[in-house]
Amino acid sequence: MVRFERHVGFATKQKKKSINDMHQVIRKKYGFKHVLELSSKSGNKLSFPLSPFSLKITNYRLSIYLRVNY
User: Fold this and answer.
1) Could you tell me which residues are beta bridge partners of residue 58?
2) pTM of the predicted model, to two decimals?
3) pLDDT tens column, 55-66
4) Comparing C-alpha atoms, which of 34, 19, 57 is closest to residue 4?
5) Which residues contact 36 (CB under 8 A, 6 or more apart)?
6) Which of 2, 20, 27, 66 has the greatest number of C-beta atoms within 10 Å?
């Protein structure tokens, strides 16, 4: 568990500030060099495809993308 500053607001800029603050606290507290945030608002290229709000279901013939927007 970590405590970080949450920047209130719905703007992407505010969400990114909160994510960056959380990553900074995790790096400092646990000594990690890299933190992967599974979020569509994170700057990491892997974050959005791995996000629970962006799922891809594939069978042998068809790929379906499911996106949850809130």
Assistant:
1) 63
2) 0.62
3) 777 787 887 766
4) 19
5) 42, 44, 46, 47, 50
6) 20
Contacts of 48 (CB under 8 A, 6+ apart): 39, 40, 42, 54
Residue numbers in the chain where pLDDT is lower than 70: 40, 52-54, 65-70
- Residue 69's pLDDT is what? 56
How many C-beta neighbours within 10 Å does residue 37 have?
20
How many angstroms separate the CA atoms of 50 and 70, rounded? 17
